[in-house]
TrEMBL record:
One of its GO terms (molecular function) is 4 iron, 4 sulfur cluster binding. Residues 307-337 form the 4Fe-4S ferredoxin-type domain. This is Lactate utilization protein B. Keywords: 4Fe-4S, Electron transport, Iron, Iron-sulfur, Metal-binding, Repeat, Transport. It comes from mine drainage metagenome. Residues 7-17 have a biased composition (Basic and acidic residues). InterPro entries: 4Fe4S_Fe-S-bd, 4Fe4S_Fe_S_CS, FTHF_cligase-like_sf, Helical_ferredxn, LUD_dom, LutB/LldF, LutB_C, NagB/RpiA_transferase-like. Residues 1-22 are annotated as: Disordered.
Length: 477
């Protein structure tokens, strides 16, 4: 990659989002893309009764799986190990990268072919490998494009959704030797595939994500459209899968409902091109497949969400991106403005557990609370309720019962707290309220013209010359 992207969600979030809002080309691109994806999803769910039933089933499966998460994780490890797959546990991103690096060094690996994996983005896998002198390159077309551009994905399903075909054409012409500028989309796809096809054969290790891990059979399920996931998991001699600890179900029969919800909610497809089920390394007599398979189970803050009954619902997510596609805020500012691996509504409720609420609390306020995300979430995550909870946590007094998360109270300001304490005092005492309202109405000329965020796009608020109490007294005098 041409540069390392460091995520600082709280650092200049307002400036990043403001810049995105004032970029008409980007707003047009995102609006068109979101409208297109919304329509594709609507076509896939013509029967609202079927959708309601499927969502309820999907939510029930995810809640059931999370309720038994510790036992299912142990069962998964037992069955994977029996199948010949090596299981590793990582509490932090650094531990996960350290495990992968140890595997790579044991095999003297110099290159790693990466299938699409948001968890690998979350832990900074590519940069950790680059620091160790190992080339970890993206093979998903969207990920490959943003990697060439030195950027991060702006959407969890469609990483390069923020780029136009003209921008991609210019990027390929600049970065890939011997490639001429062309805006033919099919030609651009062929160019990318030709470059990547050669790399698959040269890679020492293949890395993938995991959509579902089945505990009772020890099976890793991988959803994809391009075939690069299948190449990453079969061509290299070693396959490393990396996933969050929440991506687990008990039985194979739990996968089809979630699979149906995932594909239709994400890209408006009835089914993806490839659905890979991996249960063991290459067996005797088999012509392809890796000689070793490793699964790295990553916590990285998920236990914090799991420990809280309300916040546990965050872990129900199946990473479809539907909440982003329907979010009016995401559609206007795009994914990069959030400054986190997971943008949009789901990012606002997932990221605090991974990065701390002190680093991410502004994201909880970057929402209209319109509920569009809740209406389309295939597993019925109460996103708006969790956003309100995070807002309260951000304003909580450190050490209080309301401050339960890492970084709680980060948004609390002494001046603001003093204002609300004064407001509470005035409104809890009738005599003080009457006296204060009298002074405010009579001193309306002293109202400030600069009232912070309110007056950035609105006229200043000025108290009425007379209180309602005064008007009623005059009327009935």
């Amino acid at each position: 990659m041409s540069q390392v992207i460091h995520f600082h969600p709280d650092d200049d979030f307002k400036e990043r989002s403001s810049a995105a809002v004032h970029d008409p080309a980007q707003r047009k691109n995102f609006r068109g893309a979101m409208d297109f994806l919304q329509e594709k999803r609507r076509v896939q769910f013509p029967d609202q009764d079927e959708l309601a039933g499927l969502r309820e089933l999907g939510a029930a499966i995810r809640r059931y799986s999370l309720a038994r998460l510790p036992q299912l994780l142990e069962q998964l490890e037992k069955n994977l190990t029996a199948n010949g797959i090596q299981v590793h546990w990582a509490e932090t991103a650094d531990e996960a990268n350290g495990i992968a690096l140890g595997i790579a060094r044991r095999h003297n690996a110099r290159s790693i072919a990466k299938g699409k994996s948001m968890v690998s983005e979350e832990i900074g896998f590519s940069h950790a490998m680059a620091d160790a002198g190992i080339d970890a390159f993206e093979t998903d077309m969207g990920e490959y494009i943003v990697e060439l551009a030195g950027e991060k994905p702006s959407h969890i399903i469609m990483p390069a959704i923020h780029k136009t075909k003209q921008e991609i054409a210019a990027l390929f012409a600049e970065k890939i030797a011997g490639v001429d500028y062309t805006e033919d989309v099919d030609a651009l796809i062929r160019i990318g595939r030709q470059v990547l096809r050669r790399k698959f054969a040269e890679a020492d290790i293949g890395l993938s994500g995991v959509n579902f891990a089945v505990a009772e059979t020890g099976t890793i399920c991988l959803v994809e459209n391009e075939g690069n996931g299948r190449m990453c998991t079969t061509v290299p001699k070693v396959h490393i899968a990396v996933t969050g600890i929440e991506k687990i179900v008990e039985k194979l029969e739990h996968v089809p409902p979630l699979y149906s919800l995932l594909t239709r909610s994400a890209t408006g497809q009835p089914i993806t091109t490839y659905f890979n089920m991996i249960s063991h390394p290459r067996q005797a007599g088999e012509k392809d497949g890796p000689e070793e398979v490793h699964l790295i189970l990553v916590d990285n803050g998920r236990s914090q969400a799991y420990a809280d009954e309300q916040l546990r619902a965050t872990l129900q997510c199946i990473r479809c991106g539907a909440c982003m596609n329907h979010c009016p805020v995401y559609a206007r500012i795009g994914g990069h403005a959030y400054g986190t691996t997971y943008p949009g509504p789901i990012g606002a409720i997932v990221s605090p557990h991974m990065l701390g609420l002190d680093a991410t609390y502004p994201l909880a306020f970057a929402s209209t609370l319109c509920g569009a995300c809740v209406e389309v979430c295939p597993v019925k995550i109460p996103i708006t309720d969790i956003l309100i909870r995070l807002r309260n946590e951000a304003q909580a007094r450190p050490g209080s019962a309301d401050a339960s998360l890492r970084g709680s109270g980060a948004g609390r300001k002494s001046f603001t707290s003093a204002i609300w304490k004064s407001w509470s005092l005035v409104y809890s005492r009738l005599g003080l309220y009457r006296l204060t309202s009298w002074f405010i109405s009579r001193g309306r000329a002293l109202s400030p013209t600069d009232q912070g965020a309110w007056t950035r796009s609105r006229t200043p608020l000025t108290p009425a010359p007379k209180r309602l109490r005064d008007l009623l007294r005059e009327r009935w005098r």
